[in-house]
Amino acid sequence: MIDSLIRILFYALFLVTPLLMSSLTSELFEFNKMMFIYLIALLITSLWLCKMILAKKIMSEARNFRSAQIIIKKTPFDVPILLFVLSQIMSTLFSIDKHTSFFGYYGRFNGGFLSIFAYVVLFYAFVSNFSLPDVKKLLKISLLSSLMVILWGLPGRFGLDLSCFIFVGQLNNQCWTDQFRPSERMFSTLGQPNWLGAYLAINFFIGLYFLIKSKRLFSYSAYLFLNFVAIIFTRSRSSLMAVLAALTIFVAMIVWQRSKAIIIIIFLISFVGLLATIKQFNRSSINSSSVTTSYDIRKIVWQGAVDLGLRNPLLGTGVETFAYGYYFVRPKEHNLTSEWDFIYNKAHNEFLNYFATTGFLGLAGYLFFIFSFIIFSLRSIKQQKDKLLLVFLLLAYLTILVTNFFGFSTTTIQLFFYLIPGFVLLATKPAMNEVQYKFNDLEKSQWAALFLLVLLFILSLFSLTKYYLADMQYAAGDRLLKAGQYSEAADAFLKANKLKYEPVYEDKLSYALANLAFLSSYQGKQEKTDTQKLISLSDSYNLKTLKASPKNVLYWKTRAKNYFLFYQITSDNNDLLKGIEALRKAQELAPTDPKVPYSLALYYSLLLDSTNELSEADDSINPNDAEVKKELSP
Questions:
Q1: Which residues contact 305 (CB under 8 A, 6 or more apart)?
Q2: What is the CA radius of gyration of the chain?
Q3: Is the N or C terminus of the chain more exposed, i.e. has fewer CB atoms within 10 Å?
Q4: Rounded to an integer, what is the distance from CA 83 to the centroid of its chain?
């Protein structure tokens, strides 16, 4: 029963994850997928541990341990995985923002240490509980899920987006902002065109394997046609490049034994195609609409990632802290692009992202795992008689490396990144004998262990549920804040923060309270008393966020915005001085951010006007204005 449940949960992981999205959460796509992965990982781990507890007596009584099923299977990737995980632990411990490094950047979620740990646990649970027939069934389920993703996204290409129909009840594309245009670039339930393209590139080679092995030629041919058309509709050049590169390798592998001349011709053609692609990338950075091309922006961000990694060579700035660390070294050329005020929370190159955030140790661990798998796969292909599945799994894995080079990993792609090595491993090993577990005659220690396991499962599930509910409150608060409903927004942020501690919630709460204080200052005498309480409360939450993340330039900007509002309430120059102090700290962290000097100029202008008014009213210098005079002196 336990084995069956574990298999069903893995099938659900690959069937449901790509389809999940919700308009009630702060991020429509990745957050819901990540929470589902956490849930499945929790369920699988609990069942797996339960299996271990029940198997304890059988394992201890077995004369020949090899005759019993190994509960945790050793793999050729144990050392690479261990070294990689250790590098992530070290980088998290010495991170500039430990909370972000553990949970992931809020808005991306995938990539934090908790998510990496979940993927690694899923890998070991998979190889320890699955067999080759299960792998093939799971791959077919992945194809089914990808087909559903394609069919869901295709109507949006023609102006009839199904997501809009679900979210707002209108069968059109009007529910999306200008950043999301499904009629121009298809993204379906994955969230972004490049993410969809990367997902489909993996499934293209899974489908190609079944086309060759199966007698259902029409079904798999139709799927591959739809898959490739969908990749074209995403207009994701990295995904298309990944498919073409992997196809080239596949053809080369076929003809290598027959004619080396043919393979040379193939590589020459591929080289010409690659040059043409690079030429396409290297076109003028500014097009007719003055929008900087993605390639030109990537070059700038990549340079910043390299500089950030070299600045913190051993362990980087901390797992998933690129959004904050990039400001430290942000090239000034970024200010001349159309995305000059965008927040870049990823380096848009997975390898450089690991270098910038986890240093040489993290990057080395990541590359060691990748090369270990590739070498193992190539050796297995040479040794195995039925090598076709291994070939196509390796090709699917190579597409991940290509798309990750021009972008970054997402939840769905990470599942394949960590579990394709498990697929290959099971395809090279014989199935292990099943062991029957009996619940009768369990020892007291086993009953105690089962009770403790159930208790930990309930507590973990409760925490995960609170996390999801907190994000829903945060999303509601953010919508209310943008609508100017500050009191309701503050209540929502406060509820979110009570459900789960998160500096992002406190930051938004602080700003909502500052705006609420500003509005209440125009009310009666009683409300003015409340204004001071709101100012104090807003400032305390802001100080908490800065204590938790002192090198987050965004929180220092919030402090400056808050004190701008406080000044309008109190007309106290000290509030301007504290705002200037916050902006100066922000400038230390982000020396090339153009918004900071602009804001400083605004503050100094207000300070100068206020000082001149004071001088005209009274020539005597107020002691509180001594610091003002100092600030305004040359």
A1: 322, 326, 347, 349, 352, 353, 355, 356
A2: 28
A3: C
A4: 22
Query: In degrees rounded to 5, what are phi and psi of residue 181?
Result: -130, 85
292 bridge partner residues: 286
What does the mean pLDDT of the chain come to?
Answer: 87
What pLDDT score was predicted for residue 433?
Answer: 43
DSSP code at position 432 = P
DSSP E strands, 312-366: none
60, burial (CB in 10 Å: exposed 0-12, middle 13-18, buried 19+): exposed
Mean pLDDT of 263-285: 53
Q: Which domains does the chain have, with CATH numbers?
A: 2-236+292-427 (no CATH), 502-632 (1.25.40.10)
User: Which stretches of 466-524 are assigned E, i.e. beta strand?
Assistant: none
- In contact, 602 and 583? CB cutoff 8 Å: no
The predicted-structure confidence for 462-493, as pLDDT tens digits, reads as follows: 999 999 999 999 999 999 999 999 999 999 99
Task: Pick the closest to residue 21 from 226, 166, 155, 172 (CA basis).
Answer: 166
CA 273 to each of CA 261, 267, 621: distance values in angstroms, whole numbers, following the listed order: 19, 10, 74
| pLDDT higher than 60, residue 623 | no
Query: What is d(CA 76, CA 378) in angstroms, rounded to the nearest whole number?
Result: 14
Query: Which region, left, alpha or beta, applies to residue 348 given φ > 0 means left and ψ of -120 to 50 means alpha?
Result: left
> Cβ neighbours of residue 293 under 8 Å, at least 6 residues apart?
281, 283, 284, 285, 286, 287
Which of these ranges, 249-253, 445-449, 471-475, has the smallest mean pLDDT?
A: 249-253
> Residue 287: what pLDDT?
47
| CA dihedral for 620, 625, 627, 632, sign (positive or negative) | negative
Token readout for 380 is: 């297995």
The predicted pLDDT at position 274 comes to: 55
Q: At what angle do helices 322-329 and 350-383 cross, to 10 degrees?
A: 120
For 89-146, the pLDDT digits (tens) are 999 999 999 999 999 999 889 999 999 999 999 999 999 888 888 999 999 999 999 9
Q: What is the DSSP track for 146-212?
A: HHHHHHHHHHHHTT--HHHHHHHS-SSSTTS-TT--TTTS--TTTSSHHHHHHHHHHHHHHHHHHHH
> Quick one: which of 558, 631, 552 has its CA closest to 599?
558
Instruction: Please identify which residue in the block is written with the tokens 């196809």.
Output: 247
The Cα 48–Cα 67 span in angstroms is 19
